[in-house]
């Protein structure tokens, strides 16, 4: 587990709202990945049940990995490289955990094309969102200081 910074003790209500926005965006990106995947394969039956079944291991894997890598610490917003490294590490480990959950808990077979596509597209969605969030946060802090 990656240790947190002593700066993390300075969380404010504003930080809590931003963390909630960041986490909500992460969840939305993972759901978008699943929904686009289902649509691209022409899978429209049992829509809600299947989206939740497919998304659950990815969401759980991401949450566990993001917590292990402290990817939701507000002080990271002032250290973009650390924020992005922790985000990328959580994305990669999160996918590994998702595959383990799918295989051992849900008894789903993991094929190489599925694994590679999942890694690529969860990375695209999650990391693009987190970069956009980081840019927004950086701009907000600059405006507040000006």
Describe the protein:
The protein is mainly α. It has four helices and no strands. The longest helix has 34 residues, at 112-145. The model is unreliable at 3-9 (pLDDT under 50).
How does the SSE layout of this entry go?
Layout: H1 13-40, H2 47-68, H3 80-105, H4 112-145
Please supply descriptive tags for the structure shown above.
0% strand; 146 residues; 4 helices; mainly alpha; single chain
Structural class of the helix and strand makeup? Answer: mainly alpha
Helix content: over 70%
Total tally of structural domains: 1
Choose one word for the global shape: elongated
Report mean pLDDT, rounded to a whole number. Answer: 90
Calculate the terminal CA-CA distance, rounded to whole Å: 37 Å
| Total DSSP E strands | 0
Q: Please describe the biggest sheet, giving its number of strands, its sense, and whether it closes into a barrel.
A: none
Low-confidence runs: 3-9
Number of helices: 4
Report strand %: under 5%
Q: What is the rounded Rg?
A: 16 Å
In brief, what are we looking at here?
The chain has four helices and no strands.
